[in-house]
Amino acid sequence: MAEVTPMKKDGRDGDTVNAVIDVKKKNISSSRLPINNPLNTIAYSEEHEHAARIIQRVWRDYGVQVKRLKTRQLWRKSIFNVSDRRKRFFASILVFANSSIQLIVYFINYFWGIYLKGTFAVLGLYSTLLIWSLTLPVIKPWQTKVSLFVSVLSYVFVSLIAKIFEARFDERYIVGKIALLILIPLLYFMLEAIAITLRDIYKDGIHGLSERIAAEIIALMPIIFYFAANEIAIEVSREIFVEDLCTYMPGATYDKNHSPDIQSVAKGKWMNCTETAKFDQHFPQIPKTSNEIMLQQSMKEYFGMELQETIARYQMLETIIMMLTSLVLFRLCRLSLNSIIALQISGWELALAVTTFFRVGTALILGGMSMEKSKMSQLQNYLKVLEAIIWVGYVLTLIIIIKLIYDADNVAKIEKEKEKITHHHVPKNMKGLHKNKSMKVISHRQRRKSSFG
Fold first, then answer.
1. Dihedral of alpha carbons 159, 160, 164, 170, sign
2. pTM for this structure?
3. What is the CA radius of gyration of the chain?
4. Residue-level pLDDT at 63
5. What is the pLDDT of residue 47?
6. DSSP 199-227
7. Is the dihedral of CA 18, 20, 24, 28 positive or negative?
C-alpha cells in the first residue's frame, strides 16, 4: 500500500499529489474514475477511495471559490450600476435646474431689463463641468450636451438674433459671439476626448476618479459663486451708478418712453450720458465747483463699476479654465510634484503653464486701470487690447490642451497594445513614441503610477 501523507486542514496540497501519483503507479484508467462522483464505482482499494475523496474535495472547493468570486464581481457590478444611476439622476436634476435658472434669467431681462445672461452663462459652463465629472463612467451621456447648449449656446444665439433685429452691428460684439460659437462645440468634443482617455488610463478605477474630480469641482463652488455674486450685485445696482452720473452730466436727458433693448419691455433710459465722447469732453481734471467734483467722482465710480464687472466675469472664466488645465496636467499627463522638481516636463506642458501665467498677468493689468492719467477713449482702447490678449490666451490654451489629450490618448493605446507587440509587428503609435518627447514623458509617468491614480 502506498504511503499517503496525513491530511491537512484544507485537504489539498500533499495528499492530492500523493493520491495522483498512486493512481498513475497503478495504471488506473481515467475512464474508470468518474469525476462527478468517484465513490459510485465498484470496490476500489482503500488508497483509491482516499485519492478520489481528495480529488472530489479539491473540485468542490474550487467550485466554491469560483462561485464566491463570481458573486463578489456581481455585487461589485451591481454597486457600480446603482452608483451610476444615482449620478445620472443627480446630473439630470442639475440639467433641469440649469434650464430653469436660464429661463428665470431671460424673464428678468425681459420684464425688468436687468442683464444677467452673461453671468449665468458662465455659471452654466461651471455646472456643465460638474455634470461631465458625474457622468464620466457613462459613455456619451446626454446631460453634458443639453447643459452646454442650454447654458451657453442659447445665450449666444439669442444675443446674435437680438443684434440682427436691432440692426446694431458692433464688430467687437459679433466677432466675440462667433468665436464662442466655434469654441463651445470644440470644448464639448474636448471633454469627450478627455473622458475616453481617462477611461482607458484608469480602467476599473474610473468610478473613484469620477468622485474625486466631482469633489474638486464642488470645492471651487464658493469661489465661483463669490465672483458671480459680485457681478450680479454690480449689474443690479447699475441704474444707481447711471443716475448718479447723469444727474451731473451736461446735456444728459432722461427719456421715460425709450426702450433700450429689443430683448426687454422695460422702458426708460438716460440719453447723451454714458458715451465715451461725453467722458472725454466733460471729465474735469482739476474740479473747481461742487458740480464738477460730483461729476468727476461719478465718472470714476461708473468706470470702476464697468471695470469690476468685466474683471469678475474673467475671474469666473479663469477659475474654470484653470480647473480644466489642472485636470489635464495632473490626471491625463500624470504630472506630480516630483516630476516638476526633477524637471520631467515636456515642452507642451511648459507652454500650457506659461500661457496660464500670461493670462493671469493680463487680468491683473486689467484690474489696475484708472481714469486718473488717461482719457475714457484711451482706457476703452486699452481694455479692448487686453481683452483680445486674454481671448487669444484662451484659444492657445485650448489648442495646447487638445495636443496633450492627443498624446495621452496615444500613450493609453500603446499601453493597451503592448501585449500584442511581437518582433515583426510593432503598433503604429509605438513607432513614434521615442520621437515625441511629450508622449515619452507621459508614458514614463504612467509606468511609475498604478492605474488607480
1. positive
2. 0.75
3. 34
4. 63
5. 66
6. HHHHGGGHHHHHHHHHHHHHHTHHHHHHH
7. positive
Query: In 328-367, which residue ranges form alpha helices assigned H by DSSP?
Result: 337-341, 347-367
What burial class does residue 334 get, using C-beta atoms within 10 Å of its C-beta: 0-12 exposed, 13-18 middle, 19+ buried?
buried
CA distances from 409 to 44, 402, 403, 439 (A): 63, 10, 10, 9
| Dihedral angle, C-alpha 256, 260, 264, 268, nearest 10 ° | -10
State the pLDDT confidence band at 408, using cuts at 50, 70 and 90. confident
Beta strands of 217-351 (E only): which ranges? 253-255, 269-271
Which residue has 449665468 as its cell numbers? 120
Q: Is the pLDDT of residue 31 over 80?
A: no
CA distances from 337 to 13, 345, 435 (A): 48, 11, 25
Return the residue matching grid coordinates 493671469: 360
Q: How does pLDDT run across 51-67, given as a tens digit for each residue?
A: 777 777 766 666 656 66
CA dihedral 365, 368, 373, 375 (to 10 degrees): 80
Confidence (pLDDT) at 264 = 76
- In angstroms, rounded to a whole number, what is the distance separating the alpha carbons of residues 330 and 209? 12
Could you identify the residue written with the cell 463578489? 72
Average pLDDT in the 230-239 region? 90
User: Whole-angstrom distance between the N-terminal and C-terminal Cα of the chain?
Assistant: 58
Any idea how long the chain is? 453
Would you tell me how many other CB atoms lie within 10 Å of the CB of residue 204? 10
Q: Is the dihedral of CA 443, 444, 449, 453 positive or negative?
A: negative
Asked if residue 414 lies in contact with residue 449, where contact means CB atoms within 8 angstroms, the answer is: no
Q: Which residues does 307 contact at the CB level (< 8 Å), separation at least 6?
A: 366, 367, 369, 383
What percent of the chain is predicted at pLDDT more than 90?
Answer: 11
Alpha helix (H) ranges present in 368-422?
A: 376-417
For residue 108, pLDDT over 80 is answered with: yes
**Quick one: pLDDT at residue 321?**
92
Retrieve residue 410's grid coordinates: 496615444
DSSP secondary structure code for residue 67 in this structure: H
Highest mean pLDDT among 260-269, 361-370, 440-449: 361-370
What are the residue ranges of helices labelled H in 220-289?
221-236, 238-248, 276-282
**Beta-carbon contacts of residue 133 (< 8 Å; ≥ 6 apart):** 210, 213, 214, 217
Which letter does DSSP use for residue 151 in this model? I
- Cell numbers for 166, please give them: 436691432
DSSP-H helix ranges across 113-170: 117-134, 142-148, 154-166
